[in-house]
Amino acid sequence: MHSPSAASDDDSDALFGLDALGPEPAAAHPSRPSFRDSEAARRLLPVREIHAEPAAAASPRGRQIIARFPQARLVEVESHWGIPGLHGNEGNVARWVRVKGETLVLGERKSPRTRPNGRSADWIAPGASNGCAMACAYCYVPRRKGYANPVTVFTNIDRIIAHIGRHIARQGPKTEPNQCDPTAWVYDIGENGDCSVDALICDNTADLVHAFRRWPTAKASFATKFVNPDLLTLDPRGRTRVRFSVMPPEDSRLLDVRTSPVDERIAAAADFLDAGYEVHFNLSPVVLRPGWEDAWAELLTRLDDVLPDRVKRQAAAEVIMLTHNRELHEVNLGWHPRAEDALWRPDLQETKRSENGALNVRYAGPVKAQAVDRLRTLITARTPWLRVRYAF
Ligand code: SF4
User: Fold this and answer.
1) The ligand 1 atom nearest the CA atom of 134
2) Would you tell me the crossing angle of helices 292-306 and 365-382 to the nearest 10 degrees?
């Protein structure tokens, strides 16, 4: 089997400028007003403060973003990491959700790196952002920056794309199919955020989607909980996989704060397929609570009822059991304690200290194995067309 190379990259220069990346979404469809200019988008992201590294603020992408939010106060910061009063500040817990919508950070990715994965994707690409404007109670994304982690946009998108292009070129064609994809090397472009939300801020997501159109041996992939109609204008030509995350709506209403309702995500699947995306589903996270099996059975039945055949024919799913974290549990108790009734189940979970010293929590082996089996059985019965790429 052809083994992907994990060799490091020489990222000394960008290979092209932003103007080489393709038309902006609005220009591609001049008659369609951008969703990101709508009142609904402004309500989700009423940006009042932009913390920016000087080089990021001066870059073309940085200038575009600052111009989009003229009312926002610009604060110069040395680094997008460890911003005083923003990251790791427990005082923000009470304002957690507000900070996510009202604050942006602009920084530069200093040394883009691609890491092997093998589960959801062949590779984890260096993301064009870190952080999210939504506030799912189980989300691992805030852990690295701590507490309220609003979106950090990396403004040197040209360098990130140049890095990915070189990485793809080094792999050559994919000669053996695997569960990530039969023919394309799959690159996850949204490990630490939600690309659909990023597209409310700037064209980083559009630039990545356009870049992957040029790479016939590779495919971009990202999970999302937000339906952003602007993505329908990007013309991905089958080279980007959108993975809509779904869970029973009653769980989502409790846990997925600020996201699009699950029904909206399901309803969007056909539109995204027709717009040129591959559409998969993340059944995630699976939260074990009284009645979870009935709730998932109902959700799967809904997928079967609502999705047209053309979506079903190409769909596949990842099943991801909840993992949680003691620090996040403690933070959540400060702003959303009801979520913890579902997420924090010491009777079912075991803790494991990760390499960075964090105490991660997951369902104990036998509990998890039984739940995955049960879910697979439900999928076979309710959505036999839904291939499970992997369950974890
Ligand atoms: S949408 Fe994704 S990245 Fe954003 S808060 Fe929810 S789980 Fe985290």
Assistant:
1) 5
2) 30
Q: Determine the Cα–Cα distance for residues 207 and 199; give it in Å rounded to an integer.
A: 10
- State which ligand 1 atom lies nearest to the alpha carbon of 142: 8
pLDDT in tens, the chain (392 residues): 333 333 334 343 333 334 444 444 444 455 678 999 999 999 999 999 999 999 999 999 999 999 999 999 999 999 998 888 787 666 677 777 888 899 999 999 999 999 999 999 999 999 999 999 998 999 987 766 666 789 999 999 999 999 999 999 999 999 999 999 999 999 999 999 999 999 999 999 999 999 999 999 999 999 999 999 999 999 999 999 999 999 999 999 999 999 999 999 999 999 999 999 999 999 999 999 999 999 999 999 999 999 999 999 999 999 999 999 988 898 889 889 999 999 999 999 999 887 777 789 999 999 999 999 999 999 999 999 999 999 98
C-alpha of residue 134 to centroid of ligand 1, in Å: 6
Other beta carbons within 10 Å of 215: 17
* CATH numbers and ranges of domains, the chain: 18-391 (3.80.30.30)
Q: How far apart are CA 149 and CA 200, in angstroms?
A: 17
- What is the C-alpha to C-alpha distance for residues 15 and 157, in angstroms, rounded to an integer? 11
**CB of residue 141 inside a 6 A radius of ligand 1:** yes
Atom of ligand 1 nearest to the CA of 194: 3
For the entire predicted model, the pTM comes to 0.91
